[in-house]
Structures are given as C-alpha cells and as structure tokens.
Design a protein that fits this description.
The protein is an all-alpha fold. Helix content is 73%, strand content 0%. It is globular, with a radius of gyration of 19 Å.
Length: 203
C-alpha cells in the first residue's frame, strides 16, 4: 500500500498538492495514449490539452516541452539516477552502483505497460531518439565524478577515458536491453536483459 503523499518538507500533501498531481497524471496518461494511437510527431499539444480537459497554458505550467509529456520529469530521472549511484555502499563497485541506478530509474514508471509504451515510442521515433541521446550525454557527465571515485576506491584506476567507457557501456546495455524488450513485446524482465547484455560485454 502506498504511503500518504508527502510534500518536499515532509508534511502531508495538501488538497492542492494532490489535485495538482492528479491533473499532471491525467495529462501524462492522455499524451501517452495519443502518442501510442497516432504517433508522437502527429500528435499536437492542442489536441492533448483538449482531450485532457485543460488549456494549453495549464499544460505548459506542468510540462515545459512536448518531449516532457512522454518521458515525464527528466530532471527527476537524472536526479534519481545520480542519487542512487551516490548512495550505494562504499564497497559497491562502479558496475554494481550503476546497475542500482538503472533499476531505480526504471522503477519510476507507474506500470510495466507504461514503460513498454514509452520505450516503444522512444525507439521508433527518430526525433525522440535524438532528444534521448542529448539527455543521456548529460546524465553521463553528472555520473562522472561519482563513478570515478568508486573506481579509485576499488583500485581500478580513474583515468577519464576508462570512467567514461564504463558509464557509456552501462547506458549502451540499457539501450540494448530495452530494444530487445520492446521487440519481445515486453516479455521477460528488462533488468535480466540488462544483466545479460552487461555480461556479454564484460565477458
């Protein structure tokens, strides 16, 4: 059972907070449904707003760009990724910490079906793939000092090319796992596929 919603200060969420979250979720659900039914590029902001029962101005108050309507809060995804990697025990190596970060980000999806819809759109829409590449490069930069510190502690060396290669490999394995998962119509567990990809590279 979900715990009672909390605000950033730890207090119970107000009615306004809960209403805002419900409205945000309604917009996201509507956008994802339309993107899936008729394509990302073919769906307009005006159509999403109309079907969600809000004005375009209200929609943009919740989401800054059309792309945010597919991926949710990308800043939050990046924050969860770096926080999770940074919070892993000191004895955890770089690969283990990165795996924990990937799992934490995947867990942000509300459901397995939602994750499948988002990955399917991401991999089948060129404009979204381009945007994901840009965000992925930023996430990798944010992870650089965290992974470098872990590699130093493990005596694995911290030369920048090595650290970048480790981080880039983790993201490449996530891409390979998610593409395979989408190709299999969501069968199996995406983290099992991630582990399989990583084992192939490291083996």
């Amino acid at each position: 059972m979900k715990q009672e919603a909390k605000t950033a200060t730890g207090a119970s969420a107000t009615l306004w907070d809960r209403t805002r979250r419900l409205a945000s979720q309604e917009i996201l659900d509507t956008a994802l449904r339309l993107f899936t039914e008729q394509g990302y590029d073919e769906t307009t902001i005006a159509q999403i707003a109309r079907e969600a029962g809000v004005s375009q101005r209200t929609l943009f108050r919740y989401f800054g760009t059309k792309e945010d309507l597919l991926g949710g809060d990308q800043h939050r995804f990046g924050q969860v990724l770096t926080d999770t990697v940074g919070e892993q025990p000191a004895e955890a190596g770089a690969w283990e910490a990165l795996r924990a970060g990937v799992a934490a980000v995947l867990a942000l999806h509300d459901s397995r079906e939602q994750a499948l819809q988002r990955f399917r759109l991401l991999h089948n829409t060129p404009s979204l793939r381009a945007g994901w590449l840009e965000k992925r490069l930023q996430f990798q930069e944010d992870l650089l000092p965290l992974v470098e510190a872990r590699m130093e502690n493990a005596g694995a060396g911290s030369a920048e090319p090595r650290v970048r290669a480790v981080i880039a490999t983790a993201f490449a394995c996530l891409d390979a796992a998610s593409m395979t998962w989408v190709g299999n119509d969501g069968k199996g567990d995406i983290m099992d596929l991630y582990d399989e990809c990583l084992a192939a590279v490291r083996g």
